Amino acid sequence: MSEGNAEEILKRFNIRPNRNRIKVLNAIIGRDHTVSAVELISDLKDIDKTTIYRTLDLFEKKMIIMKDVDLDGVGHYCIRSKPNDPHTHFYCRECHKTMCKEIDKSIELNIVDEMVDSIEIKIVGVCKDCLQKKRS
Ligand SMILES: [Zn+2]
Ligand SMILES: [Zn+2]
């Protein structure tokens, strides 16, 4: 779901790009699955926990990232390529990974009076890798 580099994305969303923010954002983009705060903390050992949580809150408020609660009730994050990004999540019930999927059709909603920020569709199934493991 990445579009441009971390620094450009931050600027586009009017966030001052500092070293930690760039690192956190880079750790989120460039994956095809979502990442939890705990995984980010263990990946980014040189940034303290509080900074990571604060950065994630900021990114979420500014709508750069999307927070998604997976089947285990754990919050995971992924990048939005644009506001109201029409992407959805595929939960693998075998490996419990959550993968980002682009949807190629826009969803028409009859909502007139409200402003829609995002639409969530949950897809649950078995991912490609797990299917292959099952077959072999
Ligand atoms: Zn799987
Ligand atoms: Zn996603």
Automatic annotation (TrEMBL):
<feature type="binding site">
    <location>
        <position position="130"/>
    </location>
    <ligand>
        <name>Zn(2+)</name>
    </ligand>
</feature>
<dbReference type="GO" id="GO:0008270">
    <property type="term" value="F:zinc ion binding"/>
</dbReference>
<dbReference type="GO" id="GO:0045892">
    <property type="term" value="P:negative regulation of DNA-templated transcription"/>
</dbReference>
<dbReference type="GO" id="GO:0003700">
    <property type="term" value="F:DNA-binding transcription factor activity"/>
</dbReference>
<feature type="binding site">
    <location>
        <position position="127"/>
    </location>
    <ligand>
        <name>Zn(2+)</name>
    </ligand>
</feature>
<dbReference type="InterPro" id="IPR002481">
    <property type="entry name" value="FUR"/>
</dbReference>
<feature type="binding site">
    <location>
        <position position="92"/>
    </location>
    <ligand>
        <name>Zn(2+)</name>
    </ligand>
</feature>
<dbReference type="InterPro" id="IPR036388">
    <property type="entry name" value="WH-like_DNA-bd_sf"/>
</dbReference>
<keyword id="KW-0479">Metal-binding</keyword>
<dbReference type="GO" id="GO:1900376">
    <property type="term" value="P:regulation of secondary metabolite biosynthetic process"/>
</dbReference>
<dbReference type="InterPro" id="IPR036390">
    <property type="entry name" value="WH_DNA-bd_sf"/>
</dbReference>
<protein>
    <recommendedName>
        <fullName>Transcriptional repressor</fullName>
    </recommendedName>
</protein>
<keyword id="KW-0862">Zinc</keyword>
<dbReference type="Pfam" id="PF01475">
    <property type="entry name" value="FUR"/>
</dbReference>
<dbReference type="GO" id="GO:0000976">
    <property type="term" value="F:transcription cis-regulatory region binding"/>
</dbReference>
<feature type="binding site">
    <location>
        <position position="95"/>
    </location>
    <ligand>
        <name>Zn(2+)</name>
    </ligand>
</feature>
